[in-house]
Amino acid sequence: PSDYMVTMKSDKSGGSAVLGILKAVNELGLDVEVHGFVGAVENMIGGDAYKPDDVLIAKNGKTIEVRNTDAEGRIVLADVLSLAQQRVEDLDYIFDMATLTGACVVAVGHYTSGVMGFSDEVKDKVIKSANVSGELASKLDFNRHLKKTIKSEIADVCNISSTRYGGAITASMFLSEFIEEKNRDKWVHIDIAGPAFVEHTWAENPYGASGAGVRMMTTLIENLCNEK
Fold first, then answer.
1. pLDDT by residue (tens digit) across 109-157?
2. What span, in angstroms and rounded, lies between the C-alpha atoms of 105 and 140?
3. Model confidence over 170-202: pLDDT tens digits?
4. If we measure between CA atoms, which residue out of 206, 197, 192, 219 comes closest to residue 14?
5. What are phi and psi of 89, to 5 degrees?
6. What are phi and psi of 137, to 5 degrees?
7. Within 10 Å of residue 126's Cβ, how many Cβ atoms?
8. What is the distance between the alpha carbons of residues 24 and 43, in angstroms, rounded to a whole number?
9. Residues 6+ apart with CB under 8 A from 79
10. Three-class SS string for 131-163?
């Protein structure tokens, strides 16, 4: 519906946050090497648009069954994650941010980012940095039962779950399929769908883009520098 298209410009908030973080790290003069990757794509109707039931081949060679064409952001992000790991082989951490799911907003509210991944230690670092920086973040844990809901009979993975519940987690589990084994405990996915765009003023945030993720990740990078 057109009502839901009006603010879809905010769906680039993850990419915008990456650029904001790089700018902040540079201006603060932090002694750290940070690589930023942005999936800058246009989501438009066209003759070569993908369709329900298509099977796509991702950059890392895995096949994706398309059950829902509206779950397009995660397909873009899958390729971005694959590219990042190809370009930066010896990495310490890999973080991705996206306005990925409305389910995350349902789970934790408009003001909070969802933090997901395999390593509790790394997730806790993100949440601590969020709290210190003035942002809100909450852990959403993986479980083996939800993993079954993105299984495909004709491809390596489905782009949407077979259940309507736990959508933020199943979307993150989909992304985990594109994380190399050696990087599993270095990776965290942050769903900023709730706080990324403000339609009703709250705290210090006026209407519009909030810059969600920039403060928490800049604080995290500062903390990691201090741990050296």
1. 999 999 999 999 999 999 999 999 999 999 999 999 999 999 999 999 9
2. 12
3. 999 999 999 999 999 999 999 999 999 988 887
4. 192
5. -75, -40
6. -150, 150
7. 26
8. 29
9. 39, 58, 59, 178
10. HHHCCEEEECCCCHHHHHHHCCCCCCEECCCCC
Helices within 29-89 (DSSP H only): 73-87
Structural domains in the chain, sorted by start: 14-28+62-227 (3.40.630.10)
How far is the C-alpha of 134 from the C-alpha of 49, rounded, in Å?
40
pTM reported for the whole predicted model: 0.95
Looking only at the bridges linking them, the beta strands covering 94-98 and 112-117 are unpaired
Please provide the distance, in angstroms rounded to a whole number, between the alpha carbons at the two ends of the chain: 50
Cross-strand bridge partners of residue 57: 63
CB contact set of 211 (below 8 Å; sequence gap of 6+):
16, 17, 20
